[in-house]
Amino acid sequence: MDIAALSIGLSQLKVQQQVGIYALKEAMSVATNDSSKLSEIMQSVAGNVNPEHLGNNIDILA
Known about the structure:
The protein is mainly alpha-helical. The chain has 1 helix and no strands. The mean pLDDT is 87.
C-alpha cells in the first residue's frame, strides 16, 4: 500500500468515527430531553391523584 492510500483510509476512518460520536451525542441529548419531559409529566400527574379516602375499601357483599 502506498502513502496516499493509507492517508485516504485513515481520513475515512476519522470521518466515520466523528459521525459515530455525533450520532451518540444526539441520542444522549434526545434521551435526556425525553427523561426530563417524562419527569415533568409525572410531577404534574402526582398533583391530580384521587383523595385518600377513595379506593381504599371494596364492598364484597354487594
